[in-house]
Amino acid sequence: MRDTLLTQITTNLAGSNVKVSSELPFNNGGEVLYMKNKKHFYLDAEQEAREEFIKCLDKNDVEQTTTTLNGYLTVDAKNQPGDISNVVASILSANSVITNTIDNSAGVTTEIENDAITYTFEFNFITII
Amino acid sequence: MAVINVSAGSQAVLQLAPSADDLANVAANVMTVPQMQDITINNSTGVFRFKTLDNTAESAVTTPATNQLSLNVVVDETTFFGSGNADVGAVIETGLFGVSSSKTKVFFRAYFSDPDTSGSKYLEGSGFISGLSPTVNMDAPVWISPVTIEVDGDFAEGEEA
Asked: Does the interface predicted TM-score (ipTM) exceed 0.90?
């Protein structure tokens, strides 16, 4: 799922001021990569939660899987890229590439620290097994 | 006292077959209904009440019982529409929908505990499947259907050999 989403985001951001990294947003020398490498989008590893959706007497339960992926993009807060609105919209709209879900949502929050603004994206995909 | 709990997943089992003999002897012809969410066995004795001038309370006599099995299942395609295999009897061949629409009598056993364990109690009888009403929506995106077996006659208590 991460690969599919990352590929779509890469396609959506082609020609923009933001590049997409395939690396995970790990810490490097005490600093997370997206803070270090501004204007680079990082997509974290999948987080998966399974729960019973329908309980059955024979234990053949129907399960619901919620997959969550977080993405990070940091840019200069004072001089944001001119196309930042389009970049955010393009990242959010990439969620439609994931199919066979019963719920598919994406959202973004921002946080300013010193002179940098970090966009944190959250993608949620719910599937039934 | 022995409480029967269904936590093992092998209790509360409903078996259906095209004949009583199949139910007892021909395992291949027996459908074990999968993915039941719940099952309710109704043995509702009718009551006729009447008042008399010399009595301060109503009198009552029983009338024949209405027997019924009702359950909710997650719709399994093969179980619901049948396997199409004519060698294994009408229930498995045509599925729950098939025997309902053709009004074919089915024979059932409702086990209270594990059918593979000797001494397990069950109620058996025969009846007609009705009340199918498969439903699905985006908040509950899996087909689910109620199933009712309108029992023809009495329940008979039995014990697995």
From this structure: no
